[in-house]
């Protein structure tokens, strides 16, 4: 049997996707930049938690990028997760068999049941999966938007490069990809049930789901947050106005109480000064509030501001 080269399929799909962009933005410079950016994606930046298999409009797709480049309208989409380790510590990730959503945005999560294992909480591959209704939304975390050399050289220094749309229902996100002609290398799918939010970071080039970076890093007990507050948090992340380490720090601060700069520094392997600077940045953006004075100050999610702004970052 001939093995499918999924990365080559993804590469060819990316080349087709940028052709949806305005013609005056797709020149030789833009194509070379795409090639450069694509090569960076060959290395999986975080350990994977599962492989992904896509089904679009009831047909199996070799790769979501390929489906995006070929299928005009997404009526129904599903992703299967396979190859999960039998006994990981399921501290932040969730053992999921399948995600599925329709054009209406309504869908579900097919969970594997959990079980206790010596290393913590694992999943039971022999147990009966159970379906939980959910609304699925998506935003892009790693991407390429084609720009001609003329656009790049003439852009004012204080003007940021274009960014993909903020969090959207999956079928609307699909349309935006094709309308703008951008390439999503990595996405986050947020599944909202009545009581919880589940988050899946998906590498579309390598067809894998990435493990949550917090796995095993922090010991502080998590606190309950409402689904609506999680939606506002995801909206803030989807603006792509935060640095990667700020997103990670915010995710940690959001789910615990009274976090410290030292904890963030230890978890992310940076200096206390760097951690404190990034946390100050979150304070300025009305996402985090600080009480006390350094070096004993404490940080908490600013839920009042988050709700007031509905996750929008000014």
Number of domains: 2
Radius of gyration: 20 Å
Q: Whole-number average pLDDT?
A: 90
| Count of alpha/pi helices | 10
Notable characteristics:
alpha+beta, 314 residues, two-stranded antiparallel sheet, eight-stranded antiparallel beta barrel
Walk me through this protein's architecture.
The model has no long low-confidence stretch (mean pLDDT 90). This protein has 2 domains: 1-212, no CATH class; 217-314, Arc Repressor Mutant, subunit A (Orthogonal Bundle), CATH 1.10.10.10. The chain has 10 helices and 14 strands. The protein is an alpha+beta fold and 314 residues long. The protein has helices spanning 6-17, 28-40, 64-70, 149-154, 170-180, 227-238, 244-254, 261-268, 272-284, 303-309; strands at residues 48-56, 59-61, 76-82, 96-102, 106-111, 114-117, 120-123, 130-144, 168-169, 183-192, 197-203, 208-210, 288-291, 298-301. Helix 8 (261-268) crosses helix 9 (272-284). The chain has an 8-stranded antiparallel β-barrel, surrounded by 4 helices.
């Amino acid at each position: 049997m001939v093995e499918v080269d999924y990365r080559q399929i993804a590469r060819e799909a990316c080349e087709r996707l940028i052709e949806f962009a305005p013609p005056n933005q797709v020149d030789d410079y833009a194509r070379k930049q795409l090639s450069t950016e694509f090569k960076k994606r060959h290395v999986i930046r975080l350990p994977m938690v599962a492989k992904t298999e896509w089904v679009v409009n009831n047909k199996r797709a070799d790769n979501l990028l390929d489906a995006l480049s070929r299928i005009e309208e997404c009526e129904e989409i599903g992703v299967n997760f396979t190859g999960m380790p039998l006994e990981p510590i399921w501290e932040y990730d969730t053992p999921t068999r399948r995600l599925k959503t329709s054009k209406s945005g309504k869908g579900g999560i097919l969970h594997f049941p959990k079980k206790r294992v010596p290393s913590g909480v694992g999943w039971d591959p022999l147990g009966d999966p159970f379906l939980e209704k959910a609304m699925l939304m998506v935003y892009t975390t790693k991407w390429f938007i084609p720009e001609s050399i003329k656009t790049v050289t003439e852009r004012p220094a204080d003007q940021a490069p274009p960014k993909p749309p903020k969090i959207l229902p999956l079928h609307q996100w699909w349309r935006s990809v094709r309308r703008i002609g951008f390439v999503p290398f990595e996405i986050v799918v947020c599944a909202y049930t009545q009581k919880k939010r589940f988050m899946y970071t998906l590498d579309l080039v390598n067809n894998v789901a990435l493990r949550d970076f917090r796995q095993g890093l922090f010991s502080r007990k998590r606190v309950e947050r409402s689904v609506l507050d999680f939606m506002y948090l995801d909206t803030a992340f989807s603006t792509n106005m935060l640095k990667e380490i700020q997103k990670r720090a915010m995710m940690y601060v959001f789910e615990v109480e009274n976090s410290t700069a030292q904890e963030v520094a230890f978890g992310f392997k940076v200096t206390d000064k760097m951690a404190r600077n990034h946390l100050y940045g979150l304070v300025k953006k009305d996402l985090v509030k600080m009480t006390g004075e350094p070096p004993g100050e404490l940080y908490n999610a600013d839920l009042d501001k988050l709700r007031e702004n509905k996750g929008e970052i000014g």
